[in-house]
Amino acid sequence: MFAAVVQAVNSVRSAIDAGQIKFYEPTDHQEVFQRAETKRQPQEPHSQPDVENFVAGKAYALGFMAVDEARDAWAVDPWDAQYLGVTVKELSLAMKALRANGLLQSGARPDYVRPTDKLLAEHSSRAREEATLTRSKLSHSSPPAKDELMKEVQRALKQHPTFALVVLDVDNFKSVNDTKGHLGGNVCLDKFIDAVETVVGSRGRVYRWGGDEFAICLPDFSTTEAVTTAERIRAAVEQAKAGGEIAVTTSIGVCGSDRTDSKSPEEFFDFADKAMYKSKHTGKNCVTAWPIGTKAASPLPSQRNRRSRTLELDSRRF
């Protein structure tokens, strides 16, 4: 019986890693709860450095982040061995290697360790570096990053049960440049970007893929949720008055994986782009979702089956 509990817990851990489980804010109310896939999926064998990184991360999280003062963490945990697909001996070797490098020290029991200040310093500096690389702030001088965007779309389509791409174009930006010059245009773009990033926050990532064209990757968003967020962005841009007396708004297109079976990043982007152009040519300052012309299209059969194995977000997330 206890072995079944271990299996269930590790199945949840694996489902979280695979993006099959989504987390909600305490104030959210979900209308639909669905089961995550509980079958254990084959996994690539972990190298010894991978195991060492896992043990170090666990010691850092439990030894520093979860408590006010440093405490012991269970390094050689059979549950972790099953989760990682390694042996208890490999966990023990990882623990010893980390101790030899001064990142861990012996705990009160043989299989327990206590993180050192050296481990804290390494993890803190690594976190800052990763944050700088993945969350570098956009500005008018940021170069277009379409190749990077396509890679992110491809990764998200593979790793997340649902995914939405939002494409934005700055309305009337040419008028700002013609009237106020490039300096005025730069100020306009920076205000536009600030308005967009304030709404998106940590829920997604904003890319610049052209002069006044942007895209947002929203992992774990359905089309409905992405449209709701896009409407918030549209309103925020309108209220920001980035162009001063010139009305600067945004035309937005949305494509969600629950409305198409396409797995091609280029085609997925093209769908969102076409939806954006529909907004552009029907009055601007509005949001259009793909497929164009559908008000509340249901997920395609294959998408519906896939989503039945995941926990579904409801449309009131935002």
Task: Report what the structure shows.
- This protein is an alpha+beta fold.
- The chain has 2 domains: 88 residues, Arc Repressor Mutant, subunit A (Orthogonal Bundle); 173 residues, Reverse transcriptase/Diguanylate cyclase domain (Alpha-Beta Plaits, 2-Layer Sandwich), CATH 3.30.70.
- Strands 5-6-4-7-8 form a 5-stranded mixed β-sheet, sandwiched between helices.
- Helix 9 links the parallel strand 7 and strand 8.
- Helix 1 crosses helix 3 and helix 2 packs across helix 4.
- The radius of gyration is 23 Å and the shape is elongated.
- The two termini are 41 Å apart.
- The C terminus is likely disordered.
How are the SSEs ordered, and which strands pair?
Blueprint: H1 2-17, H2 48-65, E1 73-74, H3 78-84, H4 88-100, E2 104-106, E3 112-115, H5 117-134, H6 146-159, E4 163-170, H7 173-200, E5 205-208, E6 213-219, H8 223-240, E7 250-256, H9 265-280, E8 287-289, H10 301-307
Parallel strand pairs: 7-8
Antiparallel strand pairs: 1-3, 2-3, 4-6, 4-7, 5-6
